[in-house]
Write a structure and sequence with these properties.
Blueprint (H helix, E strand, L loop, with lengths): L1 E7 L8 H15 L7 E6 L5 H12 L3 E8 L1 H11 L5 E7 L15 H4 L2 H5 L2 E10 L2 E3 L2 E5 H12 L7 H15 L3 E2 L1 E4 L2 E3 L5 E8 L21 E7 L3 H13 L2 H4 L4 E5 L1 E5 L4 E5 L2 E5 L3 E13 L4
Parallel strand pairs: 1-2, 1-3, 3-4
Antiparallel strand pairs: 5-6, 5-17, 7-11, 7-15, 8-11, 9-10, 9-14, 11-12, 12-13, 14-17, 15-16
């Protein structure tokens, strides 16, 4: 027996995500008459971490195979992955009803509309996908440190202030980070070998399983989800004027050719070393770790890609 479990984040980016998703789910199972012997359930995540608990519970409850659909943004997908990674009886499909949805940009040949087509998703094909592991959590898309992680941390604080919307909170946080977080003292060990970038000072560092993050920045343009490697891109400390000059290249993925002293390498394991805990951004979520070690775990996730119409 195959169970289809739709985990919906009611606070996702689109308007009325629960109503829209529920209607599409019901229509999909009515149209796909060959799925009559398969069951489906719809559950809502109410607070941070709920999607992880719901996904983990699904792994334990169903002795058969479970397809879990993460209906939200990259954060919802991140939580679901952390609940099921390594499980052999579960596959995960992103349904991008959030505001960022960077992970699905990895699939250049699959338009976003197909990921939103529930009928195509339940008929989808399964692939084995790498994940990144950092201590007690996993990341499907990327892990980063420096300017963008500092911005994410400050955004979480600013958005709780009165009269500050999510979009405004990000702009306020970015402006503050631009003034205070361009220089981050971090040393690296790559596959056991020490590496000193920018005399130990960097503006940002990204470890990519996928290509995009931060709302469409193609930071690791050569990354592949099934190569058993992660792509490490770091930029030594730049002046604010230099950063503004090259930020467009960083967004469209041409920074490897244009940005001075950028370092890029495919590897299996990286350790970041600093005198104090390092703020990390993982699939949009913020963590802090002292001297974190990040490694790629090949083929650890069963990922569902939507079928062609």
């Amino acid at each position: 027996m195959i169970r289809h479990l739709f985990i919906i984040n009611p606070k996702a980016g689109i308007r009325n995500p629960v109503e829209v998703a529920t209607q599409k789910i019901r229509e999909a199972f009515i149209l796909n008459t060959d799925r009559e012997n398969e069951t489906y359930d719809i559950v809502l995540s109410q607070k941070k971490g709920d999607a992880t608990l719901l996904a983990r519970k699904a792994c334990l409850e169903n002795p058969g195979f479970t397809c879990i659909y993460a209906c939200g943004g990259d954060g919802t997908l991140h939580e679901v992955v952390n609940g099921v990674v390594g499980a052999e009886n579960v596959a995960v499909c992103p349904v991008p009803v959030g505001s960022g949805n960077d992970f699905i940009r990895c699939f250049d040949d699959i338009p976003k509309e197909r990921f939103l087509n529930v009928s195509a998703c339940i008929r989808g094909k399964e692939i084995l996908c790498d994940v990144l592991r950092c201590g007690d959590f996993y990341s499907l898309n990327n892990i980063s440190a420096g300017l963008d992680a500092a911005t994410g941390k400050r955004q979480n604080k600013v958005k709780n202030l009165p009269l500050i919307s999510g979009g405004a909170a990000y702009k306020v946080a970015l402006a503050y980070s631009f003034l205070t977080s361009m220089k981050n003292t971090i040393r690296f060990e790559i596959d056991g070998e020490p590496l000193l970038i920018g005399e130990g000072n960097v503006t940002l560092a990204v470890l990519g399983n996928g290509k995009y993050y931060g709302g469409g920045f193609k930071a690791t343009p050569l990354a592949e989800l099934q190569d058993g490697l992660m792509d490490f891109c770091t930029v030594p400390t730049l002046s604010r004027m230099e950063f503004l000059k090259y930020v467009g290249d960083y967004k469209n993925g041409t920074h490897l050719e244009t940005m001075p002293k950028v370092y890029y390498k495919k590897c299996k394991k990286i350790k970041m070393i600093s005198e104090k805990p390092i703020v990390l951004q993982a699939d949009g979520e913020i963590f802090e770790r002292l001297d974190p070690e990040i490694e790629v775990v090949p083929g650890a996730l069963r990922l569902i890609l939507p079928a062609e119409d």
